Structures are given as C-alpha cells and as structure tokens.
Amino acid sequence: NxxxxxxxxxxxxxxxxxLNAVADTxxxxxxxxxxxxxSSNYDLFKxxxxxxQDQMDNLTQEASQxxxxxxxxxTSGTYESPEKYRTDKYSxxxxxxxxxxxxxxxxxxxxxxxxxxxxxxDSDDIVKAEQDITMQSHLSxxxxxxxxxxxxxxxxxxxxxxxxxxxxxxxxxRKQRDKQRDExxxxxxxxxxxxxxxxxxxxxxxxxxxxxxxxxxxETIVDLAKYQAQYDLMQEHRHSLEETRQKQMELVNELELxxxxxxxxxxxxxxxxxxxRIPSFPKLQIMVPLGTLLLLFSVTGFIFLREIMDQRVKxxxxxxxxxxxxxxxxxxxxGEDPTETTAAEFVIRKHPYSVLxxxxxxxxxxxxxxxxRLEYQTILxxxxxxxxxxxxxxxxxxxxxxxxxxxxxxxxANFRRxxxxxxxxxxxxxxxxxxxxxxxxxxxxxxxxxxxxxSVIGPGxxxxxxxxxxxxxxxxxxxxxxxxxxxxxxxDAPPIVVAGDALVVANKVxxxxxxxxxxxxxxxxxxxxxxxxxxSRSDFLGVLLNRPRGTAGGxxxxxxxxMAEYTSSSAS
Length: 572
Hints:
The chain is built from 17 helices and eight strands. The protein is of the alpha/beta class. The model has no long low-confidence stretch (mean pLDDT 84).
C-alpha cells in the first residue's frame, strides 16, 4: 500500500520542510519500534523453545520411571501380552470344564432316575449285568433247562408230567436269573452314581479354581491397559511437544533471517516531499459540481423527509398499513373525475356513467354481500373528523342500493349538525328521529319520501334533538320496527372524534362503517377510531376512503381515465 501525507500552508517553502521533518521523525520512530519488537519477539520465542525442551526432558524421564514402576513391557497394547494369553487359556479350560460338569450332572441324573425306577434300564445295563461272572451259572443252568424242555416237547405230549415239571423248573430258573440280574444292575448303577458324583464335585472345584485365576488375570489385564493408556498419553504428549519445538525453531530461524533482509522494515520512504507548484484550494472543477450535488441532495432530502413525517391518510395504501383495517372502497375527488361531474350528491342519478358513480357502486358491492351473508339491515356511517363527507356517501350508497332493487331508509342521526334532510330535499324541522326517541311521533309520521324512491327520517324538531335519548331502550324498538319495513337502513352519524353520539348508536345497529377524508385525518386517529368501532357491539365492516387525489399521470389518474372511457363507450 502507498500512503501519502499532505499539509497546506500559505508559505510554499514551509510545505516540504514540515512534511520531510514529519516523515523522518516517523521513520526513526518506526525503526526504534521495529528493533524493540524484534528483540522482544526473539527473546519470547527462545524462552518458549527452552520451556518446550524442558517439558520434553521431564516427560521422557517420567515415561522411563513409569515403565519401571508399572511393568509396561510392550508398546503394542495388552492384547499381545503374556497375561492376555493366560486369560484366554483360562477361558478355554473353563469352557471345557463347564461342558464336563454338564455331562457329569446329566449322567448323575440319569443313573438316579434308573435307581428310583422312574426310568427303564437300557440294553447296555442289561448286557453289562449279564456279563458279570456271577450270572454265568444262572445263564448256563437256564440254557440247559430250556434245551431239555425243547427235547421233551418234541418227544412227549404237552400235558405230560415230565414236560410240566420241566416248564416249572425253566420258569423258576428265569425268575432266579432276573432277580440276580436286577441285583447286579442295581450294584452297577450305584457304582456309576458314586463315580458321577465324584466327577461333578471334581469339575465344580476345577471351575471355581479357573474362575478365580481368570478373575485375577483379568484384573491384571485391566491394570495393564490403564497403565498402557497412560503411557500412550505420555508418548502422544511428547510427540506434540516435538512438533511444537520444531515450529518454534523454524520461527526463530525465520525471525533471524527477516532481520538480516534489507526490506525488513514494514515501512520505507518512497519519495521526499517536493516544493508544490499548483495551489490546492480552491478548485472550481470540484467545488461547482460538489455544490450542485449538495444542493440537489438537500432539496431531495427535505422533500423525502417531509413525505415520511406526513402521517395523513392520502391513499388506500396508507390505510392498508393500519393494523386491522379493511378498505371497502375509494371515492375520488370531484375534480379527478374525467367525465366533468358537477355535483357529488346523487351522482348516481345525475351522472350515472361518471367515475364517482362507478366508485360508489364498487363500494356498495362488499357492503351488500356482507349484509346478505350476515343478515345486516342497520348500518351506521360515521367519519373520524368533521368534513369527512359522510352525508354525501350515505345519499349515494342509498341511491345505488335503491337502483339494485333494495328498499332503503336513511336516518339523520346527527343532532348537532344535521344535513341529510336538506340534501334529500325533505323538511328538516318536521317529525323525525328525535321525535321518535321522545315518543312524540310515530314511525309513519317520521318517514318522508326522498328522491330516487329513498325513504328518509330527518333529525326531528329542534326541541326533541336530545343526544342523551340515543342511549335509552327506545332506539332498539324503533330499529326493530323499521327492520320489518326496509331491506337496508343507513344511519348518518356525527364525527366520532368530536362527538360520542356515533359510538352510542354503534352499540344499537348491526354494523358500522368508517368514512375517512383523504389528506385530512392522520393514521393514528383512524386507528383509534377503528378500535373504538371494533369494540362496539356492532360488526365493523371497514373503511371507505373519500376524495383521494392522484398525481398527474399516476396510477389513480390512469384508472379514472380508463373507467371513464369504458363507461362512456358502453353508454353510447
């Protein structure tokens, strides 16, 4: 990396003198630091090398002493040690003794069963007994008697006395033979039982002795394995120390070689400072563009900051960022309508093919869908602040609903600044909503016929416009009677922020809708009013944005132009 230092002065000759003095001082300081750092590092590496060598010597001595104390005689592990061979031999002998014990116990049980007559004698027992010397005389006598009997039966009749006597003698000889044979078999079995018992005891002693020796040998192997593992750890540690020592020696050698190099210093002087020939300030080729950019960025930043700080609701996108908001529709500013609409009231009747009329139709569609799906009949419309245009919205939505075949009633529930009656061209001081609440008029007397077939209930006589009457139980009975006569009932209420009347009425109707005037109400205010309506007993339908202004050539302007062209072509 190439670094430069600079300094400005009104005296041209001072510039190289000061800069070269600074550079020389810095280079001297760097050399002093490099020498000090080299010495420190060299001493540190040499000390580490000596410590590593001492550790290796100590570890070698410990390993030698460990071999002597614990008898580690092989480096290949305990599996090839003599003790392991003895243990395997004990295991083989123990298995053989176990098999012999099992055979002896089986033989002992078989002989015991024969002596207890729970098992029959086998042919080997009988043959062995008949081979006994004491059985030879019985067998010879029996054979002689049987031969004589055969001779007599061939020469005499079977009922002859001599034949009968000979048969009796043969039977007696056979019984004597069988008795003698049983005695000999019993004697032989007792002898076998004694031998089998001795074998069992001998094998048991042998197994006990082998198990004891095997256990001792196994314990010895375990100790040897533990000592072998410790010895292996020592060897691994020593190997690690050897690698560390090798690296440390390489570092010491590299450090010595680095100090001998000509470019050992990390910083070298590239060039001495020269006498400057061109002034450094001011430079118009830099100052003019830089000033222009700064001015442009300042103006743009001011506009951007002002736009961010402006929390007023200006478009549908501003409403969509408010948590829990549902946008029902957007009614454009009267001057934004390309069809040159002259009045906002009753625009459905006066200008049916205008952009305003189509916007009201689009806004009414979700309201009617919700009313049919959830059986809403009474809907409250209120603004957040004065001037939201609630009365105009009520009249146009009523005209749209009447055109759709609905029987519609509008009620002026704004006792503070009633305007609905005058817009609907009915008597504002005649029997109306206030008279119904105090019981001085009937529903039939309060209902007046307005334009487009819309039924109207005005605010009532001034003396009966009592706000406190809205909270009594009379309002529920009035609305219940009106539900049986009309399909849709729209109530025009005062602004919620400046009057609490709308919230009282909101607890008596089926649903409520908020009308927001664009470029007037702030997002926080709209959110608070929406929260108040959501907490009422009625269902909150959503927000209708009134009179937003689109920028020239913007998205809304293009939509309005396209809507006007389409409706005008369909009308023609």
